[in-house]
Design a protein that fits this description.
Blueprint lengths: L3 E5 L20 E7 L5 H18 L12 H10 L1 E7 L2 E11 L2 E9 L8 H11 L7 E7 L3 H9 L3 E2 L13 E6 L3
Parallel strand pairs: 5-6
Antiparallel strand pairs: 1-2, 2-3, 3-4, 4-5, 6-8, 7-8
Helix pairs in contact: 1-2
Length: 184
Amino acid sequence: MAAQELPVSAPTSAARPAGARPSGTGQAVTDELRPARFEDAAELLVLQRACWTSDAILNDTFEIPALYEGLDVVRASLDRWETWVLRRGSRLIGAVRGHLHGTDWEIGRLMVAPDLQGHGLGRMLLLHIERQAPASARRLWLITGKRSESNLRFYARAGYRVLPDEDDSLPHVPHTVRLVKTPD
């Protein structure tokens, strides 16, 4: 698949992270959404760690999972999952992946760089991976942390509902919430 050029306005100085340099007066920043490549694996690990750390701080848990995946595992997952990365210039700023389980489209690892969260990038990535679901997918699902209130609100606004604990149609993972959506 060809990479998609996504025009995104440059952040205003108020929204720009501390220490970031402006991209130039009046210049637009172009984001590129494309399938992940083998050479993206290290940056995917860094982005994952940054997102987990940010979630732990925001959710006041300060429980950061051990980084259990190595480059070989991430690279191997690129063959099993349809993984898309979002780049701004040379920087990896987001990623999302999907995988078909029978007639279920599992959405996993929706990540946006912590300094760019709240700018609509997560919603754009979620919509993109939902559109990648094969026509045979009857249900979309994902898992998020129980204490990730901002994630739960985000997914609820996107049309996902929490699957009750007694429902065994999806795997149970400790300290998580399972969410489902029926595609339109």
